[in-house]
Write a structure and sequence with these properties.
The chain is an alpha/beta fold and 258 residues long. Helix content is 47%, strand content 13%. The radius of gyration is 19 Å and the shape is globular.
């Protein structure tokens, strides 16, 4: 979404000056909520169009992050609960938005971002799963150091269950007993088996749409993450809103549980 209001342009420049030299988050995760409410407020007869406009903001966020040197971004696009609880035509529309996002921007070798997927890919439509995998393969050798993770068919609780299952299976195959596994279990044993293994935990989670909850998103990884809640709906999320979230982050003193 391009800035057209001169005052918005002025304020963006002001915020960027304030952030110059500041300690910015290394990894930003976003829950772009409010797409359907945005469509209703706009009077659209097809509220699914909110997802299309929300998808455009994913691209914009990457542009903003590139300009600030933020190299790790995670976008929560669809939960496992969404897949099971929304109408079929709505889910089909969301999947088409995701497919277009990957084929046109995120899954291209020249995208500048290495694509990762977090979630139960098996729960997604075959076409969507194939396009996602093609995007992962196409960007596997990206050398910019920038990483974009799309959370699809995602559940934070299920991610932890899957990590535990993998740990138990791997160790039992080596002849270890449950008692052996329990005695030697460490935090890193599970962390290295999460969907996001080898990536830093998010420093900042931003949620749009006015809701103030994590909704089963990155539960393990967000143990010490700073949270920021924005009233703007996902499709209305502006660079100003993003920079305000970063400014708020720079003004916090992180305690990491202490």
């Amino acid at each position: 979404m391009q800035i057209t209001d001169p005052m918005d342009t002025f304020y963006v420049r002001r915020l960027r000056r304030q952030l110059a030299g500041a300690r910015l988050p290394r990894h930003v995760a976003l829950i772009m909520d409010g797409n359907r409410r945005w469509a209703r407020n706009k009077g659209l007869t097809d509220i699914r169009l909110g997802y299309r406009h929300g998808g455009e903001q994913v691209k914009n966020v990457l542009v903003w992050c590139e300009s600030l040197g933020i190299r790790h971004v995670t976008q929560f696009l669809c939960s496992i609960e969404n897949l099971h609880g929304r109408r079929t035509d709505e889910i089909d529309f969301v999947m088409k938005v995701v497919e277009d996002l990957v084929t046109q921007r995120l899954g291209r070798p020249d995208s500048g971002w290495q694509l990762h997927i977090a979630g139960s890919v098996d729960a997604l439509p075959d076409t969507t799963a194939r396009i996602l995998q093609d995007g992962v393969d196409a960007t596997r050798h990206c050398t910019t150091g920038s990483h974009i993770t799309l959370a699809l068919g995602y559940s934070g609780r299920q991610e932890i269950v899957d990590a535990c299952r993998d740990l138990l299976n791997e160790n039992s195959n080596r002849g270890k007993t449950p008692a052996d596994i329990a005695h030697s279990l460490t935090v890193d044993d599970l962390a290295t088996r999460l969907y996001t293994a080898d990536q830093p935990d998010p420093d900042l989670v931003i949620r749009t749409g006015g809701e103030q909850r994590l909704s089963n998103f990155l539960l393990w990884q967000s143990a010490y993450t700073e949270l920021y809640f924005c009233e703007a709906y996902g499709p209305d999320f502006r660079e100003i809103d993003f920079l305000r979230a970063l400014r708020d982050f720079t003004n916090r003193h992180r305690h990491y549980g202490r």
